[in-house]
Amino acid sequence: MGAKSDLNKTIRDTTDFTERFLYHIWDAQHLATELETVSGKKLKIISPGRLSNAAGPDFREAVVSLGGDLQRGDVEIHKTTYDWIIHGHGEDPNYCNVKLHVVFQHNTWQEYTIDKQGQAVEILELKTNLDDDIKRILNDFEENPLIPEEKFCRFFAEQPAETLSVALSRYGKLRLLEKEKRFAAELYFTGFNQLAYQGLLEALGYASNKFQMLQMANTLTYEVLRKNFQDGMQDEEMIAIWLGSTGLLDSLPPSFPREFVLKWKELYANQNYHQETVEVNWHLFRIRPVNHPGIRLLQIAPLIYRSLSGSLFNDLIKLFSYPQGKLKMKEFYQRLETLFIGESYYLPKEWWLGKTRLDTVFINIILPLVRLYAQRNNYKELSEAAWEVYAQYRALPSNHLTRGMERYMDKMQIRTAQKKAIYQQGILHIYHNYCQYYSCGECGG
Description:
Blueprint: H1 2-13, H2 19-28, E1 35-36, E2 42-47, E3 50-51, E4 59-66, E5 69-80, H3 83-86, E6 98-105, E7 112-114, E8 120-125, H4 134-140, H5 161-186, H6 192-204, H7 210-217, H8 222-230, H9 235-245, H10 258-270, H11 293-307, H12 312-317, H13 329-340, H14 355-377, H15 380-392, H16 400-405, H17 411-417, H18 421-433
Parallel strand pairs: 5-6, 6-8
Antiparallel strand pairs: 1-2, 2-4, 3-4, 4-5, 7-8
């Protein structure tokens, strides 16, 4: 047992530890004799499949027995389970035939990985299923990354300026539908209030702490907070629990007022609602104060606490309550900002939630969740209201992908693409579904 623990530490610590090292483990089947998936199904590997250097899953035509059910398909390999989400496989149709998700370390709370079609994929964690020969594999392993050559995307070169907005709107709608499918898959495990809560926190985690915020939201769940509220928890006690149990009270930006830190430490020490420590590996190095996860939590705390007397998701649905055909985007933005952005006695104004970050949260979390809810309950008016808002919503801040795609556009196309969020989302759909796999002939280009 001790030797295996030492080996696992060696593998984790080696600088040469890449996914290609895991390919060698899988391909040579350096695994324990009896295997079980994270969900508890008995696993037998008939054939590991063939390593693929093309776009898509890592191994093709594998044959595995899952709980006695023989299946043939693809195998995807990652260092951690959450890499599936980071790499965007959950919105990629090329990964819909994956039968087994092989990870070195399982680091999410879910027993399955969910593909684009909402299907549950079994997970095998390698860390606890390695054989002794892996030491030799480790010594022999040599890193050999495959870097695909950049190719030219024809879509924009052949797209007339007068039809670009129509084409981007079409793809923008498809991207929204993909986001709805992601949340639909997560409904396997929870309900709309928790989805909204964890989605908001994940989106506010910024690039460095998305998973960490999600991890926290699935430990200190919305239902846990609601029960504590019903038992008398006050707003600052909730803040003290959030920051105290996750270790953030001791790592807030140096410029944050110390009187609040001391007050919340005392509240956390004396409260009886939540005593357990939530182990979260926060990434705080060189992070701007406004992007600090503790500050992000303080930004969203008033909304979350207010909602505990009713329903967080109902508060979000009310945003779309306007007479049919009477949408005025200026009023809609004001309604959205009033819900999320307000005066806070413990946050200086420069640390309030910014409008650009709120726009990103709205497009990526609120809009697809509300649309999904409307579809599930056959609320036609709510669905149409959400579409109408999406079609008119202002442009979001550009990111490295949208900026990268601009090199294929002329000036007029760039101006068009930067006008609305739905156009930007259309560009992201094109990139994620076609450009990154060089499927130029399939995207209308």
